[in-house]
């Protein structure tokens, strides 16, 4: 039977002083939320999120407390991680389907992940949900001097020494200011260090290319990227010729496939296409067309010839879209 490591502070014998600190910090978050709500006097009290958020925080605390839910009390940061990733993709799926009731539910599930991590961190004395929100508030003010003013941005931690252009700026200048403020927060590090290695590879590649472009390191035009694609394709062909097919693939082939993918991702970036979402779209299209092939065939697909399969594929494409592209 699988066992789960319990955090020490989730056991019944938590010190009373620690419990008192956690309770006090929870009261702080409620006061901060109340302050933020008060900044918007036209808020509809019937849909005021502050008390609802406070209730969610308290529910999560109750689930993890002695006498709460055994499953919730058994979880750790490591066991919850996989659910966080699943919830992110379920949010993406609801958006792609334009199913707003589902999106509402999935955003709630994603918020639960934040509350879960913050609750466990509070129990261990790392930080609380109040710290999470306070840090977010400071970051938003710090990185939006064109909205909240230079003085508020500096008070929130903006360490940029040279003046920033904040008057009547467009979204492009907003992003340049954001990056400058972010770099000042991490002085002495590489411009790429703030891009997490834990990102999905397609997203990481796109962000790396975008960050390098801001430093002037990029192809001058699309033709340069297409030329690079031709170069990487030829290098992959050479690697295949030099190394017999095997499983797993030789490192030379893995490297060349990676170079080809990286170049494709940067082509997508220059075309303002999110590669992750583009590939998800194509995956969905392939699913639909393959299912149409299965439905149209009186035999299992594996029993058909290549020509018959191609015919079914062409038929599925025609039924779905008049586009001649494959």
Order of helices and strands: HHHHHHHHHHHHHH
Total count of strands: 0
Strand content: under 5%
Runs with pLDDT <50, length 5+?
Answer: 1-14, 35-41
Please, what is the average pLDDT?
Answer: 84
Describe the structure.
With 326 residues, this protein is mainly α. It has 14 helices and no strands. α1 runs antiparallel to α2, α1 runs parallel beside α6 and α11 packs antiparallel against α12. The chain is globular, with a radius of gyration of 26 Å. The two termini are 49 Å apart. The N terminus is likely disordered.
SSE blueprint:
Elements: H1 16-38, H2 49-64, H3 70-74, H4 77-96, H5 100-124, H6 129-142, H7 145-148, H8 150-155, H9 171-185, H10 201-214, H11 222-242, H12 251-270, H13 275-296, H14 306-320
């Amino acid at each position: 039977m699988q066992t789960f490591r319990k955090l020490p502070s989730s056991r019944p014998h938590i010190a009373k002083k620690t419990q008192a600190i956690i309770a006090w910090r929870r009261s702080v978050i409620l006061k901060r939320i109340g302050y933020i709500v008060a900044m918007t006097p036209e808020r509809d009290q019937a849909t005021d999120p502050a008390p609802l958020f406070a209730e969610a925080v308290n529910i999560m605390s109750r689930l993890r407390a002695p006498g709460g839910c055994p499953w919730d009390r058994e979880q750790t940061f490591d066991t919850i991680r996989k659910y966080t990733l699943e919830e992110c993709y379920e949010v993406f799926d609801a958006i792609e389907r334009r199913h707003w009731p589902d999106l509402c539910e999935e955003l709630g599930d994603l918020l639960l992940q934040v509350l879960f991590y913050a609750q466990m961190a509070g129990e261990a004395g790392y930080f609380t949900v109040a710290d999470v929100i306070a840090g977010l508030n400071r970051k938003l003010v710090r990185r939006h001097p064109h909205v909240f003013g230079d003085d508020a941005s500096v008070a929130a931690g903006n360490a940029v020494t040279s003046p920033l252009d904040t008057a009547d700026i467009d979204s492009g200048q907003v992003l340049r200011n954001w990056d400058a403020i972010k770099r000042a927060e991490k002085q002495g590090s590489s411009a790429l260090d703030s891009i997490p290695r834990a990102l999905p590879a397609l997203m990481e590649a796109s962000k790396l290319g975008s960050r390098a472009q801001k430093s002037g390191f990029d192809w001058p035009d699309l033709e340069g990227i297409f030329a690079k694609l031709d170069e990487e394709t030829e290098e992959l062909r050479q690697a295949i010729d030099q190394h017999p097919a095997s499983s797993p693939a030789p490192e030379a082939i893995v490297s060349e496939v990676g170079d080809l993918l990286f170049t494709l991702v940067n082509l997508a970036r220059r075309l303002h296409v999110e590669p992750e979402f583009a590939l998800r779209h194509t995956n969905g299209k392939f699913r639909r067309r393959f299912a149409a092939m299965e439905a149209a065939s009186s035999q299992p697909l594996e029993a058909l010839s290549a020509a018959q399969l191609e015919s079914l594929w062409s038929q599925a494409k025609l039924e779905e879209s008049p586009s001649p592209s494959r």
